[in-house]
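S2.1 Query sequence (Chitin-binding type-2 domain-containing protein)
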Amino acid sequence: MERVQILVPVLCLLCAFVVFRDAKAQTALPVCTIPGVFEIVDGTCKNYYICVDDGVNLIPVVLSCASTAIFDPVRGICVPESTAICQQTTTPSPLPTTTPGPLCVRYGRFPIPNTNCKSYYLCYWNGMGYSVMNNLTCPNTLLFEPVSEKCVSPLRYSCPVIQG
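Output structure tokens follow.
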């Protein structure tokens, strides 16, 4: 019993920036022209999207930071609110109107660009449709390897250098 009491707070700390988002909740997706991580200017500093190459097209995946975090557009990640200042105005810019599409079309783990191969998101079937669990991070020095969809040792996978 003692062991469970110790593990629960540790697990909750690991989940601090994980947000669940239902694929059906999206009404309009941004248009992707290049792969990467981009902020959504809506006055909240919490919403962003990643453009993921599925091998054929660039697919936008809309994500949100946890309630205690905001999106840092320079670093392309969610950071604790106490470490950053929201620079967005309260007047949101409208998202481009596009035909809504699913965030996930299959089960799997997918890399989040520009995170030094540390972060990924999970698409899973919730019984009614696909949902996204995002802002997942490989622990310690492990890196997310997209082919195996697992966190692996840096000895097994070398993170590609992104040319800017």
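The CA atoms of residues 24 and 50 lie 17 Å apart. The radius of gyration is 16 Å.
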